[in-house]
Design brief:
The structure holds 2 protein chains of 2 kinds. Chain A is mainly α. Chain A folds into 2 domains: 38 residues, no CATH class; 108 residues. Chain A has 7 helices and 2 strands, in the order αββαααααα. In chain A, helix 3 packs antiparallel against helix 4, helix 3 packs antiparallel against helix 7 and helix 4 packs antiparallel against helix 5. The longest helix of chain A has 24 residues. Chain B has a domain of 74 residues. Chain B has 4 helices and no strands. In chain B, helix 1 runs antiparallel to helix 2 and helix 3 packs antiparallel against helix 4. Classes of the chains: A mainly alpha, B mainly alpha. At the A-B interface, helix 1, strand 1, helix 2, helix 5 and helix 7 of A face helix 3 and helix 4 of B.
């Protein structure tokens, strides 16, 4: 057995390691090893790693949502199928975020973005359905908010570390 | 306009949450000041008849949602940095320990 990562700990547990020129008792070494290993166990990542799929999903949805929103001056019925399809894709993105471990922040962001009673993409689409068509000034101002909202989701994903 | 909003906010807080008013007024003040330019734009559009009152109210709530999204982004990115710091610390600790065990520390 020539691998030092296996050999050294085994020898240390059997005979005790040499620390600062003195051989340490095996029980003392065990306590020392535990002191190091227990905090290490707590070092599981607190946030999910970067996901290329999540990033692409957010970018695609940003572009498609903003393109559809531009048409909200027209009657809702004209675009009903597109709106419904987009709503499903937004919900899928939220579920994808929710399914990833340690991804609470991104999931909360998607919750806000897709909420039909909220005031981001989901809320805007609900309002369009309720009012049939919306004013150009309102659409323009909402677009700025929603675009910035998607940017926060995209920046959080791209800021995560690749593992 | 922002000063009027802050006064209204202070009055509401004093009526509903008098014990927290002193602490929450500065928070609300900062939030309103950060969004002042946007609020002015919407007020002008409303005055010109391009936005209804209901639309302005919706946009203000949208701005609050955006503030929440930004806060979540900042919190998430802070977690990333904390993870990086912990990993660095763990690697350094293990390096020192292995060095001592093998007598190769320098």
């Amino acid at each position: 057995m020539n691998r030092p990562f296996i050999c050294i700990p085994l020898r240390c547990f059997r005979t005790g390691p040499i620390l600062m020129g003195q051989r340490v008792n095996p029980p003392c070494f065990l306590a020392l090893a535990l002191l190091v290993l227990v905090p290490m166990a707590g070092c599981a990542p607190s946030i999910a790693s970067y996901s290329a799929r999540a990033y692409e999903q957010a970018v695609d949805l940003k572009v498609d949502t903003l393109r559809l929103i531009e048409r909200a001056e027209q009657p809702y019925e004209t675009h009903r199928s597109r709106v419904e399809s987009l709503q499903v894709r937004l919900l899928k993105a939220r579920e994808f975020a929710r399914g990833r471990a340690h991804n609470e922040m991104a999931t909360s962001q998607w919750d806000i973005m897709v909420d039909p009673d909220g005031h981001m993409a989901g809320g805007f689409l609900s309002r369009w359905a309720a009012e049939d068509s919306l004013s150009w000034a309102f659409i323009r101002e909402v677009s700025i908010q929603i675009e910035s909202g998607f940017d926060t989701i995209i920046r959080l994903e791209s800021g995560k570390k690749q593992r | 306009m922002v000063d009027l909003m802050i006064d209204a906010f202070r009055q509401q807080l004093e009526a509903w949450l008098p014990s927290l008013s002193d602490r929450l007024v500065p928070v609300g003040k900062n939030l309103l000041k950060r969004n002042a330019a946007q609020l002015q734009t919407w007020a002008s559009l409303a005055a010109a008849g391009q936005l209804t009152k209901d639309e302005v109210a919706w946009l203000v709530r949208s701005r609050m949602d955006l503030t929440r999204l930004t806060a979540l982004e900042s919190a998430g990115l802070a977690q990333v940095e904390i993870d990086q710091f912990r990993n660095m610390l763990t690697k350094a600790t293990i390096g020192v320990l292995i060095g001592r065990l093998t007598g190769q520390d320098g």
